[in-house]
Amino acid sequence: MPSGDARGRGRVVGRDAERLAALYDAHAAPVWRYVVHLTGDRAGADDVVQETLLRAWRTPRILEQDPASTRSWMFTVARHLVIDDVRSARRRREIGVAEVPETAEGDATDALFEAILIEEALGALSIDHRAVVVRAYFGGLTVSEMAEDLDIPEGTVKSRLHYGLRALRLALQERGVTR
């Protein structure tokens, strides 16, 4: 008898497939147009029609009815699917755009605040120390170039740079920038 059960299920599936094909032929196009009218989304309408037919296939009483009498049921299911999609969390979080945005640019706010803090800390240095630190780090000058530019010995440049950086670190610590 197991072979008879398998053949019986095969016939039911075959009969269901015929009824599902009849439902598709009779109702897919009108349901698709209805969903496009509701949403304006042609690709989404394909998905809704597919899900509607899947639900019809999973509801045995729909397959047993005459395909001509199930249109209102299919319209109702399609409408509920559209409503569920609109209410879904996915839909609320996604924003459709006409063009894909270019790469995001970083916010310059942090850099602006850092520049202000550094400017204030440099302002706390003596004029001699600030002149050497600014030329070394912002001007990119070597010790010999700074010595020539400021008309002082190289040893004095090194000393001012050392003590200027130490004073700059202390000024930044006072402003909470470093430990």
Automatic annotation (TrEMBL):
InterPro entries: RNA_pol_sigma-70-like, RNA_pol_sigma-70_dom, RNA_pol_sigma70_r2, RNA_pol_sigma70_r4, RNA_pol_sigma_r2, RNA_pol_sigma_r3/r4-like, WH-like_DNA-bd_sf. GO terms for biological process: DNA-templated transcription initiation. Pfam families: Sigma70_r2, Sigma70_r4. GO terms for molecular function: DNA binding; sigma factor activity. The keyword tRNA-binding does not apply. SUPFAM superfamilies: Sigma2 domain of RNA polymerase sigma factors (SSF88946), Sigma3 and sigma4 domains of RNA polymerase sigma factors (SSF88659). It comes from the Bacteria. Keywords: DNA-binding, Sigma factor, Transcription, Transcription regulation. Gene3D superfamilies: 1.10.1740.10, Winged helix-like DNA-binding domain superfamily/Winged helix DNA-binding domain. Residues 23-92, 121-169 form the RNA polymerase sigma-70 region domain. CDD domains: Sigma70_r4. Belongs to the sigma-70 factor family. ECF subfamily. This is Sigma-70 family RNA polymerase sigma factor. It comes from Microbacterium allomyrinae.
